[in-house]
Design a protein that fits this description.
The protein has 26 helices and 21 strands. By secondary structure, the chain is an alpha+beta fold.
């Protein structure tokens, strides 16, 4: 039995190899479709393992250490003395300092004081050139800062608070981000008095067995994976386990990977399967002869299946080999894209072998249905060209509808913050499988409207319906591409919308701490504002409780009408009380105050910049021991929440009446537009010169940062969106061209006949464009349906996301790739058909 099985596979492989050589074009097409995902997956898994894996983030933070202890210098020594004997520590200081720029300007940059070559710092730094700094007058610069300063090894720079000359002896990179511009100095060196001291600790024995000293009043933050961070008045301890990825983040990564892999594999299987289906159909006479010579249905099927195994194995070997070679050649490019260095190069053999095996499995899966169909076809049916009966389509339609219902039910069950991301990914995959199962019946059903269409479209639609299984495979491939783009676009928009809610101030406004106004003085504030497109510059005054640190307001029990949940989180934080008049209203609202607002301040009422604070036209202010006092309020701003701007404005007389003290507040610069980079640099120079001239010199430089969206998700969303559109367009065009190419191979007889009776090249182009339109016109709506489910499930699972429908981008994803595919498919496929006699099947 084993010998027969081996002999059968040996013969099937030999026939498949000869068939692949004889049909080089179709074989090359299948090889390319199998090779590309294997190549891309190999490059991605190797890059992820060496650069941006979840576990790498721990090394970027604390290197090879077990703990990070942070405290004041005297307390740090006491805590270090409680470590188990044999423990080893490396000092680490972090802070900000001032660096002189080549043009005479000043800028603030981060610096770290440690030995970057110490084993406990392994993974935190990469020494690119030179040596680590050893003396107090030596410094190492990151490549980003060295490029900005135009500094090379041996050059001298001015840095520090106060300034002093330092010699550049090394070029390093911080592993957590290659874009960071920073300095590295010896462990006992400080470039500012505000340096934070900590210790990287290699605990002898089991770190969990270390008995920590009491910390006094403390708060312990427990993490889901068992780690914790202890916060006290004296010191803080960061465990390695606390920084490790949580089970939720790992599950999220696993779910996203499963979803992407399944959608990509579905595209390749469907497109390759369509090519195998055409190959098996054109090979039917050869397969019929094998059956007539005594070959069993299994042996006939193995011939087609061996083709998938052979091409899958070749594609796997080429994809894995070229993927590893590409990673070795483009390491610096991978570093720039990932924004992390490649520290210890290693090949994840398990993942690479899995990619190769998956490529082979995809080849087998693509050939499975054509092989099954070939094995079940009798010799008479094969020679007679019998087609699949419609009853099979109805059965698959029922299965598909059941899968769609099941996928939707799984998504509905798991789509909440306490759900499981694996179930959401499984629901998305089941939806795609359900769409694939219903596609053949849909294609056959759409073929019924062919008589209503013009000639070219009628022929294209009838041919698609006649070969509905192959057409459905291309349709679902397009649907999978569109579904992935739709899902990720909606998820990115939801995350970007949630991030966009969190704004510190109005776009372009600049907020500086109260010490900035004191350091600059009235004249300095004028010079500072003159470097910016400033509308006004106001040193705010703040109302505080003289008996207790800070003042709070009594918020309403429910959010105001029209306030989203995400915005309400910001609204609940915008409750600072400013003391002032028209100039404060002008600076906060970027407009002139109204008569009602000025009258409210004169009459002892409050002006609200946060409408969520108003209850029945009043705002409740808590002051002293007498409890809250309700003050009449006029709302100046509705529906806009900026957590660093004051939420309430009262006059100085009102502040005294309710028992509040008045103290200096932040410096607010309102601008007519977002300042340019050169304007921000000039303003920074003015501010830092004032800080360096102050006595005593401040502990750290202040940063001039125009207000904008706090998180970078919107920009990342736009980049990801354009990338998804490009990927979707490429896959859609590829699927449509493959479908049109395969259809053209089967329509040679019809095209030759049409050419013989006088049809011109334009007719052939229109037929091919019609075939592409059928594929992408059905695939895009199905992709939209399949992509909505996983996106909705993820947004419901992630509490940080806020559902938002980007109609413009969604239409771009769904409509542009099909239109481009339709236009290109009619032109890229050879349009000229020579008049020649073609033997019709049967």
């Amino acid at each position: 039995m084993t010998g027969e099985w081996r002999g059968s596979w040996r013969t099937a492989t030999r026939i498949a190899r000869r068939s692949a050589r004889r049909n080089r074009g179709r074989s090359a097409l299948i090889l390319l479709m199998l090779f590309l995902p294997g190549y891309a997956a190999t490059l991605l898994v190797v890059s992820w393992a060496n650069v941006a894996g979840l576990d790498r983030s721990v090394e970027y933070r604390i290197g090879a250490a077990d703990l990070l202890l942070a405290a004041k210098p005297d307390e740090l020594a006491r805590v270090a003395g409680t470590l188990p004997p044999g423990s080893r520590t490396v000092p680490l200081g972090t802070g900000r300092t001032v660096v002189s720029l080549p043009g005479g300007g000043l800028a603030g940059y981060e610096y770290e004081a440690t030995d970057p070559t110490d084993p406990l710092n392994r993974g935190r730094y990469v020494l690119r050139a030179g040596v680590p700094p050893r003396a107090a007058a030596e410094v190492a610069l990151t490549r980003a800062l060295a490029d900005r300063l135009g500094a090379r090894l041996g050059a001298e720079i001015e840095a520090g608070m106060p300034q002093r000359r330092l010699t550049v002896v090394g070029i390093v990179d911080l592993s957590r981000s290659l874009k960071l511009a920073a300095l590295v100095v010896p462990p006992d060196t400080s470039l500012s008095s505000g340096v934070s001291r900590s210790l990287l600790v290699d605990v002898a024995g089991d770190p969990a067995a270390w008995v920590r000293p009491p910390v006094g009043p403390a708060e312990v933050i427990e993490y889901p994976n068992g780690g914790s961070i202890g916060l006290g008045q004296n010191y803080s301890v960061t465990d390695r386990e606390a920084l490790a990825p949580t089970p939720q983040s790992r599950a999220l990564q696993a779910g996203a990977t499963a979803l992407v892999v399944s959608f990509a594999a579905a595209q390749v299987v469907l497109l390759s399967g369509a090519a195998f289906l055409v190959g098996a159909r054109r090979q039917r006479r050869e397969l019929a002869l094998v059956a007539a010579a005594g070959g069993s249905p299994r042996q006939v099927a193995r011939i087609v299946l061996a083709g998938g195994l052979l091409l899958g194995a070749v594609a796997a070997g080429a994809g894995v080999g070229l993927g590893l070679a590409t990673f070795a050649l483009v390491g610096p490019t991978v570093e720039r894209i990932a924004d992390h260095p490649i520290v210890d190069v290693g090949i994840p053999y398990g993942s690479v072998l899995l990619v190769g095996a998956l490529t082979v499995v995809i080849g087998l899966a693509a050939a499975y249905l054509p092989a099954r169909s070939a094995g079940r076809t009798s010799v008479r049916d094969a020679l007679g060209g019998l087609r699949l009966r419609p009853g099979a389509d109805l059965g698959w339609l029922a299965v598909g509808l059941a899968l769609l219902a099941g996928g939707a039910a799984i998504l509905r069950y798991s789509a909440h913050p306490d759900g499981r991301i694996e179930l959401i990914a499984a629901g998305g995959v089941i939806l795609l499988v359900g769409v694939a199962a219903t596609a053949p019946a849909l294609v056959r059903g759409v073929g019924r409207i062919a008589p209503l269409l013009p000639l070219a479209a009628r022929l294209a639609l009838r041919h698609a319906a006649r070969h509905h299984v192959r057409t459905a495979a291309a349709v679902v491939a397009v649907g999978a591409a569109v579904a992935g783009s739709v899902a990720l676009t909606l998820v990115g928009a939801a995350r970007g919308e949630a991030a966009a809610v969190w704004r510190d101030a109005r776009d372009g406004q600049i907020l500086l701490p109260a010490e900035a106004a004191t350091t600059l003085g009235p004249d300095g504030i004028g010079r500072f504002a003159a470097t910016l497109p400033a509308r006004s510059a106001v040193a705010l005054r703040t109302a505080t409780d003289p008996e207790r640190p800070g003042t709070s307001v009594v918020l309403p029990g429910a959010p105001a009408v029209g306030v989203r949940d995400g915005a309400m989180s910001v609204a609940s934080q915008q409750y600072g009380i400013a003391v002032g008049g028209a100039e404060t209203i002008r600076a906060v609202t970027a407009r002139e105050p109204t008569t009602a607002e000025l009258a409210a301040l004169r009459d002892g009422a409050a002006v609200l910049f946060n409408d969520a604070l108003a209850v029945d036209g009043r705002v409740a202010i808590r002051a002293g021991e007498d409890g809250p006092e309700a003050v009449p309020a006029v709302v100046a701003v509705r529906g806009e929440y900026f957590q660093d701007l004051p939420g309430i404005l009262i006059s100085e007389a009102t502040a005294r009446r309710v028992g509040l003290a008045v103290s200096p507040g932040k410096l607010l610069v309102d601008t007519v537009r977002t300042p340019r980079a050169d304007e921000v640099a000039a303003a920074t120079t003015v501010l830092l010169r004032a800080q360096l001239a102050a006595a005593p010199v401040p502990s750290a430089p202040l940063a001039v940062e125009p207000a904008a969206v706090r998180q970078t998700a919107p920009e990342a969303t736009r980049t990801m969106f354009y990338l998804l559109v490009a990927v979707s367009a490429v896959v859609t065009v590829a699927a449509s061209i493959v479908a049109v190419g395969l259809a053209t191979a089967e329509m040679r007889a019809d095209l030759s006949t049409m050419t013989a009776v006088g049809a011109g090249p334009g007719t052939g182009r229109r037929i091919r464009a019609g075939q592409a339109a059928v594929v992408v016109g059905l695939g895009a709506p199905l992709g939209l349906l399949a992509g909505l489910g996983p996106a909705a499930g993820y947004v419901a699972f992630n509490s940080a996301a806020d559902w938002h429908t980007p109609w413009g981008r969604l239409l771009l994803v769904v409509l542009v790739p099909p239109v481009v595919a339709t236009l290109l498919a009619g032109t890229l496929v050879r349009t000229r058909v020579r008049t020649r006699l073609v033997r019709r099947p049967g």
